[in-house]
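Service request form, structural biology core

Requester: graduate student, group of Dr. S.
Request type: structure prediction, single chain
Budget code: on file
Notes: please return the result as structure tokens.

Sequence provided:
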Amino acid sequence: MKKRLVIALVLLVLLSTYKPQELSLNSKFNIKEIKIENNHILKDEDIKKDLMFLYDTNLIFLNTNKIKLILKSNNFIQSFEVKKIYPNKIKIKIFEKKPIVILQYKKKKFYISETFDLINFLDLEDYKNLPVVFGKQNDFKILYKNLKKINFPLNLIKKYYLYESKRWDLEIDKNKIIKLPTENYTKSLVNFMNLSKENNFDKYSIYDYRISNQLILK
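Core staff response, request fulfilled:
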């Protein structure tokens, strides 16, 4: 608290003694250090490289709009916080998006985040075992929300396949395939979850719900 009071008094004296044009020329307040924190995927050096323009910028009159434009252009960044540390440092706290699946669409790869944003694909060790979606972003969003509503065990799903008929196949652990109908597929998924508790569950590898009110086991 005392430290903040001292800083406030120093700034008050400076602002009342100098004209803005004179203060902006005071090199004491020019940024000499940029600290990046809370980033796990993005590298410090890459972020700092994009923010090179900040060095020797006056910390007191710093406009964060340009920082916002640059950081928001990186689609791995969800949000960020900027903190000035007088006399000549700036700290930027990064909040990254968290990928939940890899989207494979028209020979291109992306990540899809928890908020269903597309993220440019990077070959990252932490996310190499994510489920793969063969389909479209918006269709997957609808399916995923429906899976969440019925508390389907998402950790079991390895691949999602979307067909032109808007029908999904789900590949889960032990190479089992769930073939869903085009409509009312949540009912089929609930049935599958119930069957998974039975003793003969491992006996079958294909659970075909495509025909209304029928289940074909193979």
